[in-house]
Amino acid sequence: MLLLATLPACSSDSAEPEPGAERSAESAAPAGASDESRAEALTIVYLGDSLTAGYGLAEGEDEAYPALIERKAEALGWNVRTVNAGVSGDTSAGGLRRVDWIVNRGPVDVLVLALGANDGLRGLPVEALKENLEAIIARVRALNPDVRIVLAGMMVPTNMGGAYGERFAEVYREVADEQDVALIPFLLDGVGGVRSLNQPDGVHPTAEGQRVMAETVWQTLRPVLEEARAEQG
């Protein structure tokens, strides 16, 4: 399962962003929606890197999987609000530094935590990845105990070493089990290593690759949203 090319990071920028520097474009409720309907919308925040931000796509985040998932939800008549908090080049440590700023911007019903690809491509310590993911989950829950969290798993290229790769993938399973969050086994399932679904850099998905990612995320996210809607009444 060779998945990512050996590049220094998931973007052309290797520097980690400052808190609050992310692209914060949001897909709001449909035009003409009342304040009441906006308030009732389920807010989904996607905390990720360039894979989430839609790096290299002609339409940017409008073609990235968070926007595609919003369209799936709206096709079912669900009222959702999407916040794409993906930042190219971000690591789990960068996500931890900016999570308070993101969550404090407004109510968060569901958090999709999709970080770690850059940790792996840079060969950063796996245990630090685990600590950062756990800390992000703890911070979000401290700010909103009712939030639902979905963790997107990631894998690294085989050239990083067998032991490193195995431990890296295992961290996501451990965090999901220990923190009782839903797990997407592998965010790039069916996309990583498939040349036709990736841009020339071999790392970032094309628009078609993003559509495959959206299907992968939707399989895990849909039942989480169904539970949230049921509780919302």
Would you kindly provide a written description of the structure presented here, covering whatever features stand out?
With 233 residues, the chain is an alpha/beta fold. The chain has one domain (35-232): SGNH hydrolase (Rossmann fold). Helices cover 43% and strands 12% of the residues. It has eight helices and six strands; from the N terminus they run βαβααβαβααβαβα. α7 (162-179) links the parallel β5 (148-152) and β6 (182-184). α3 packs across α8 (207-232).
Q: Report the CATH topology name.
A: Rossmann fold
CATH class: Alpha Beta
Q: What is the number of helices?
A: 8
H/E series: EHEHHEHEHHEHEH
Key attributes of the depicted protein:
globular, 6 strands, 8 helices, alpha/beta, 233 residues, disordered N terminus, Rossmann fold
Question: Could you give the topology of this structure?
Answer:
Layout: E1 26-27, H1 35-40, E2 42-48, H2 50-53, H3 65-75, E3 80-86, H4 92-103, E4 110-114, H5 117-121, H6 126-143, E5 148-152, H7 162-179, E6 182-184, H8 207-232
Parallel strand pairs: 2-3, 2-4, 4-5, 5-6
Antiparallel strand pairs: 1-3
Helix pairs in contact: 3-8, 4-6, 6-7
